[in-house]
């Protein structure tokens, strides 16, 4: 067990390095001189030369990567071309906001998904099953940015029940856990939750149906085991795989919120990325992608470890 | 779960596991198998309906020049944002007075193209690499699968946005980005089913009888793994269409005036106060296409699943 | 409050928090105006805003003052330059490159320090003196392209200062409306705690100090800026207690924010949303303004726009009435950079109008037609201050020109990027092969409206002659303008220059904006001047 843990954690290191390399290459594949990705286009010549030396842009690519990596490891993600602020200063608040949105959407989506999936798996073939399956397919098939627009028109513009954009009257830095702020979270979280809802429903339904079909469960039920007993058995056996899927979904939500954040002007990493792309603010683009990908790597690691702890069968290899 | 690689790896998703099982059971397939698949498909009205809808849509967008009542680029300010059901403009007109039906028909071409092409390329490239990794095993497997793991470390939307954001807006860049997103999952599925098939007796027998590696792969492995990988790839089309339209919606894909559903959704956004039903049409098209591809893929999987 | 809202509130009233928060837009602190801007980010707050004139409008003029200012108190006549931090100014007759400014006494910065001649010299040096400890290269580009002849400042006494230009320039007082006076004392204090000047300016941006009618109280990067009334203001004090600025680049989100009560005022509502906004009781304001929405041609070697016939044809080809319909009537069809009757309009012989036949003839003469289409590539933005509805309008133009054999394609970039590219020129890689650029501009300052585009010395990187237009006649005319220190003489020189520009069709003049804004009926006292700017001292919330 311990050896597995160590091996798994060590394995994340080369992955993280490789992810860093991909992010580093983003600036290299961008059209134009990479220097234009680091200093503003109207910077004076001597500033340009100074930065070129500082980043080693006149040296071979591996050296540049090394220099870049050293800076990143020390927490220096560079400066935004547009605002002159450090990338980290904007990114740190944005990550918190995205995390909040992703967790809200995950709670919503996972709860619904587990309930729908569990019911559908238990009563396979029933009307309930069909409704759940339809909801799941709709959830994974709907363009969620479009769903967001529709929800804004209905709930903000027509009914005037919920705010259409932003993270509260005081912005994200004034966040408080009261209704005045939470209401801003409702529409984006609902919009973002449809995909995990669909995926979790399908997964849980599959797992539960399989367990319910296992002979000994059928036998247990035949012997008159209480519903509660069957339920506990199913939960225990379904949990590891279901948790793994949900863990990854949380990662996808973190990385995939750009469209929803754009529609709702939610001040998270997605909105930051969107602005960075159109301002061609490559340091911000690179830093945001790097941090989100690293988060995903870490999440993968945690999911693996938790899953292993819950289900010893996975360890054998 | 049995894996030939030494490093630990994320367990397969339910879909991947199911496919691996299918592939291992594949050798029992015969002509009777395909007849059975077809028989099961015929009894599945949802899948048939989806296939028909998709076929109709495909025909409609292929023959758009014949079907479309108007020019997709020419509009008039005098008739902008007409409602659905306006005589001559059955689905209304857009913000520049262009016929919506025409734009949706032509728009389907780019949307389908941008949705399907990345999956198609990824299917070819990913299958080749995955089968190679699975069949060759050892260091080759290691090399291919580790690189795959790196791309797996990015959430798909993020990777697509990152690549097309760095490369800049444009259809080709968007397609390139999406292709890169879909290659790794296909490699994984292909590798896992190939590994399953490789260890089976009849492949061993073929190798023992002196058949070349190429022949073994072509005859015994590909014949048995292509089906499951294909089914998996069809399930990616829906994701691909949503992502492609999403990139256009963000301004990273198609450029005006090319009709494309995601971009149309974007440019019609402000019209949502005037003609909400017209404004949501492109989104509905994406939705319908994507849901049909998803259901079709599910139906195919079930029909080809020998366990069923 | 609608019945539905009441019901909802009643239902959710179980939540204790709701009792305080209620639905959006119900309870607001008195006198707080929340404004949804079109910018994608908060304009820089260190004194020289970016984001075009929307930056000056919201983080320039309210927080800072300049030596000369625009009179924004009247809606019924074009706004003119009035005394600001300088009470009077004159050109030195013995040395026309020297201007003497007499400063206003008793003016204090938000931090309490005094505004005087030293502060003026300090603020000129921040962008002009590379040796100055507080020189900030990042402010240079935003500032000097708007006052390219300014060279240095010299203190005469505490309240008198001399400004020197590289050549005689009668337009300097107008240009100076763009040089905002930041507090040297406050900067020095921040510098003491910062590792270098750049960091000090970043700290200053988060915590600025000017002399304007509002002082910044809160700065949340990319999200919001809050300003409070500055009670120590030297002039008429602001009525509103607080102003909150929110960047909302997406027009739909702006409209939704106003309709759901999240903001009280939005810039540039989408024309299609205006009927809905009106139906919900919002006030739509607009006024003519010295604004031009053009396509600016590239005159470099190989550009098809070097041919005046092509430029004239494009001016004649556009159906501006149809465009006006697209904009819900919120535009004025231009006949040049200035309207007919304006003292600077002059007597051009080329009349800008819609005449597709004549356009077709001119194009054929230049060798273009359906068989040999004219291919144009225009760099445009997705949004931006003064850019109106850039995507829809450009797409309309593309469609309007197609039947004439003019194929237009677009290079879409973000607004700030477009402004930066505008100073790089059409031969720079940033143009990405474009032979036109679509940057709207303000024409109230003749330097802004004409000289910076038509004087060959204003070619990049100096200023916005993006197309590298180079014609000695125009250089001479702009020289004459700068040497006309008598107002009547100046008008005549400007009229000559403008007429020549129209005759050469140096732009494709497409629209004048009327700056539609939508605001809640709770806002009182708002005045929309004939200007790009607004004086935020007047509007306030009805009690």
TrEMBL record, chain A:
Ranges in coiled-coil conformation: none
Gene3D superfamilies: MetI-like (1.10.3720.10)
Cellular component terms per the entry's GO annotation: plasma membrane
Primary residence: membrane
Transmembrane segments: 9-30, 99-119, 131-161, 181-200, 242-264, 284-306
Topology term for the membrane: Multi-pass membrane protein
Pfam families registered for this protein in UniProt: BPD_transp_1 (PF00528), BPD_transp_1_N (PF19300)
Keywords tagged on the record: Cell membrane, Membrane, Transmembrane, Transmembrane helix, Transport
Residue intervals of the ABC transmembrane type-1 domain: 95-307
A GO term for molecular function: dipeptide transmembrane transporter activity
Cellular compartments annotated: Cell membrane
Family: Belongs to the binding-protein-dependent transport system permease family.
UniProt name for this protein: ABC transporter permease
Species per Swiss-Prot/TrEMBL record: Caldovatus sediminis
Lineage start: Bacteria, Pseudomonadati, Pseudomonadota, Alphaproteobacteria, Acetobacterales
Automatic annotation (TrEMBL), chain B:
Family annotation (Pfam families): BPD_transp_1, OppC_N
Family annotation (InterPro entries): BP-dependent_transpt_permease, MetI-like, MetI-like_sf, OppC_N
GO cellular component, one term: plasma membrane
Cell location: Cell membrane
Membrane topology: Multi-pass membrane protein
Keyword Transport appears in the UniProt entry: yes
BP GO annotations: transmembrane transport
Residue ranges crossing the lipid bilayer per the database entry: 46-68, 110-138, 150-183, 229-252, 273-296
Domain ABC transmembrane type-1 residue range list: 108-297
Keywords: Cell membrane, Membrane, Transmembrane, Transmembrane helix, Transport
Family: Belongs to the binding-protein-dependent transport system permease family.
Record's protein name: ABC transporter permease
UniProtKB/TrEMBL annotation, chain C:
Main location: periplasm
InterPro entries assigned to the protein according to its UniProt record, in alphabetical order: Peptide/Ni-bd, SBP_5, SBP_5_dom, TAT_signal
This protein's record includes keyword Ribonucleoprotein: no
Segment forming the signal sequence: 1-29
Record bears the keyword Transferase: no
Gene Ontology molecular functions: peptide transmembrane transporter activity
Keywords: Signal
Residue ranges of domain Solute-binding protein family in the record: 80-425
One of the protein's GO biological processes: peptide transport
Subcellular location, record wording: Periplasm
Any Gene Ontology CC annotation: outer membrane-bounded periplasmic space
Listed PROSITE patterns: TAT
Pfam families registered for this protein in UniProt: SBP_bac_5
Family to which the UniProt record says this protein belongs: Belongs to the bacterial solute-binding protein 5 family.
Protein name in the entry: ABC transporter substrate-binding protein
């Amino acid at each position: 067990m311990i050896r597995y843990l160590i091996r798994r954690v060590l394995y994340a290191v080369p992955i993280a390095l490789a992810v860093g390399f991909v992010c580093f290459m983003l600036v290299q594949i961008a059209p134009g001189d990479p220097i234009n990705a680091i200093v503003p286009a109207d910077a004076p010549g001597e500033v340009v030369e100074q930065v070129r030396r500082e980043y080693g842009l006149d040296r071979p690519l591996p050296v540049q990567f090394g220099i870049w990596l050293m800076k990143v490891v020390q927490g220096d993600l560079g400066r935004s071309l547009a605002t002159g602020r450090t990338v980290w200063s904007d990114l740190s608040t944005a990550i918190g906001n995205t995390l909040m949105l992703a967790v809200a959407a995950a709670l919503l989506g996972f709860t619904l998904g587990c309930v729908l999936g569990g019911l559908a798996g238990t009563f396979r073939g029933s009307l309930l099953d069909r409704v759940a399956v339809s909801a799941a397919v709709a959830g994974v098939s709907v363009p969620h940015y479009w769903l967001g627009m529709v929800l804004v028109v209905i709930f903000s513009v027509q009914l005037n029940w919920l705010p259409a954009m932003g993270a509260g009257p005081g912005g994200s830095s004034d966040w408080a856990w009261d209704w005045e702020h939470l209401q801003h979270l409702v529409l984006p979280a609902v919009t973002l939750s449809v995909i995990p809802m669909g995926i979790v429903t399908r997964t849980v339904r599959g797992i539960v149906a399989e367990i319910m079909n296992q002979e000994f469960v059928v036998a247990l039920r035949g012997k008159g085991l209480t519903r509660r007993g069957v339920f506990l058995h199913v939960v225990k056996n379904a949990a590891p795989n279901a948790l793994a899927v949900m863990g990854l979904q949380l990662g996808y939500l973190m990385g995939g919120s750009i469209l929803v954040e754009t529609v709702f002007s939610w001040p998270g990493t997605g909105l930051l990325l969107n602005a960075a792309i159109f301002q061609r603010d490559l340091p911000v683009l690179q830093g945001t992608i790097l941090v989100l990908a690293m988060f995903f790597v870490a999440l993968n690691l945690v999911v693996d470890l938790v899953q292993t702890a819950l289900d010893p069968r996975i360890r054998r290899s | 779960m049995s894996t030939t690689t030494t490093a630990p790896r994320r367990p397969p998703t339910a879909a991947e596991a199911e496919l691996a099982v299918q592939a291992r059971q594949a050798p029992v397939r015969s002509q009777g198998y395909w007849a059975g698949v077809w028989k099961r498909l015929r009894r599945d009205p949802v899948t048939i309906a989806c296939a028909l809808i998709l076929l109709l849509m495909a025909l409609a967008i292929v023959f758009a020049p014949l079907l479309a009542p108007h020019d997709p680029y020419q509009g008039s300010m005098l008739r902008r944002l007409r409602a659905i059901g306006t005589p001559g403009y059955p689905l209304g007109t857009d913000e520049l007075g262009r016929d919506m039906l025409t734009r949706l028909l032509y728009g389907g071409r780019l949307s389908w193209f941008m949705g399907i092409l990345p999956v198609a390329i990824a299917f070819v490239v990913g299958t080749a690499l995955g089968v190679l990794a699975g069949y060759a095993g050892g260091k080759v497997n290691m090399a291919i699968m580790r690189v795959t793991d790196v791309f797996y470390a990015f959430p798909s939307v993020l990777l697509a946005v990152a690549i097309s954001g760095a490369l800049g807006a444009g259809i080709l860049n968007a397609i390139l980005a999406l292709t890169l997103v879909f290659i790794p999952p296909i490699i994984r599925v292909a590798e896992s089913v190939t590994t399953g098939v490789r260890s089976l007796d009849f492949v061993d027998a073929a190798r023992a009888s002196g058949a070349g590696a190429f022949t073994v792969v072509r005859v015994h492995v590909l014949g048995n793994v292509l089906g499951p990988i294909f089914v998996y790839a069809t399930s990616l089309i829906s994701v691909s269409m949503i992502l492609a339209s999403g990139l256009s919606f963000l301004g990273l894909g198609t450029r005006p005036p090319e009709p494309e559903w995601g971009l149309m959704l974007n440019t019609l956004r402000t019209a949502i106060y005037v003609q909400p039903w017209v404004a949501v049409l492109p989104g509905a098209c994406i939705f319908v296409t994507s849901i049909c591809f998803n259901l079709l893929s599910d139906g195919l999987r079930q029909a080809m699943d020998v366990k069923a | 409050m609608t019945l539905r809202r009441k019901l909802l509130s009643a239902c959710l009233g179980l939540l204790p928090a709701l009792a305080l928060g209620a639905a959006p837009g119900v309870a607001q602190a008195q006198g707080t105006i929340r404004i949804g801007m079109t910018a994608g980010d908060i304009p820089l707050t260190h004194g020289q805003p970016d984001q075009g004139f929307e930056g000056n409008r919201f983080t320039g003029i309210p927080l800072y003052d300049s030596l000369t200012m625009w009179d924004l108190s009247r809606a019924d006549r074009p706004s003119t330059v009035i005394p600001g931090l300088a009470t009077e100014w004159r050109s030195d007759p013995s040395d026309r490159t020297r201007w003497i400014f007499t400063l206003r006494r008793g003016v204090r910065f938000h931090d309490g320090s005094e505004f005087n001649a030293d502060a003026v010299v300090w603020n000129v040096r921040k962008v002009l003196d590379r040796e100055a400890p507080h020189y900030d290269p990042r402010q240079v580009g935003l500032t000097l392209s708007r006052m390219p002849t300014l060279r240095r400042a010299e203190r005469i006494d505490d309240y008198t200062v001399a400004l020197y230009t590289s050549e005689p320039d009668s337009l300097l007082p107008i240009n100076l409306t763009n040089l905002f006076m930041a507090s040297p004392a406050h900067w020095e204090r921040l510098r003491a705690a910062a590792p270098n000047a750049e960091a000090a300016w970043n700290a200053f941006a988060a915590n600025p100090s000017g002399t304007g009618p509002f002082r910044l109280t809160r700065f949340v990067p990319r999200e919001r800026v809050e300003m409070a009334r500055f009670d120590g203001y030297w002039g008429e004090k602001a009525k509103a207690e607080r102003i909150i600025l929110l960047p909302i680049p997406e027009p739909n989100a702006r409209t939704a924010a106003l309709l759901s009560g999240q903001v009280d005022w939005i810039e540039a509502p989408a024309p299609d949303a205006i009927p809905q906004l009106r139906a919900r009781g919002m006030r739509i304001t607009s006024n003519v303004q010295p604004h031009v929405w053009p396509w600016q041609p590239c005159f470099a070697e190989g550009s098809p726009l070097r041919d005046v016939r092509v430029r004239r044809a494009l001016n004649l080809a556009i159906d501006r009435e149809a465009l006006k319909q697209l904009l819900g009537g919120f535009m004025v069809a231009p006949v040049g950079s200035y309207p007919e009757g304006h003292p600077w309009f002059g007597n051009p012989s080329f009349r800008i109008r819609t005449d597709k036949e004549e356009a077709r003839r001119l194009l054929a003469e230049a060798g273009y037609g359906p068989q040999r289409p004219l291919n144009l590539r225009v760099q445009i933005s997705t949004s931006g201050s003064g850019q109106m509805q850039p995507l829809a309008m450009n797409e309309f133009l593309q469609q309007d020109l197609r039947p004439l054999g003019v194929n237009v394609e677009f290079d879409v970039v973000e607004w700030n990027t477009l402004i930066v590219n505008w100073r790089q020129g059409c031969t720079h890689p940033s143009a990405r092969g474009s032979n036109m650029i679509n940057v709207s501009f303000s024409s109230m300052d003749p330097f802004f409206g004409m000289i910076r585009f038509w004087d060959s010395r204003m070619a990049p990187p100096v200023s916005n002659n993006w197309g590298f237009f180079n014609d000695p006649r125009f250089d001479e005319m702009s020289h004459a303008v700068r040497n006309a220190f008598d107002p009547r003489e100046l008008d005549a020189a400007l009229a000559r220059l403008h007429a020549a520009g129209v005759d050469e069709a140096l732009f494709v003049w497409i629209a004048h904006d009327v700056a539609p804004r939508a605001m809640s009926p709770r806002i009182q006292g708002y005045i929309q001047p004939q200007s790009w700017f607004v004086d935020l001292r007047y509007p306030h919330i009805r009690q």
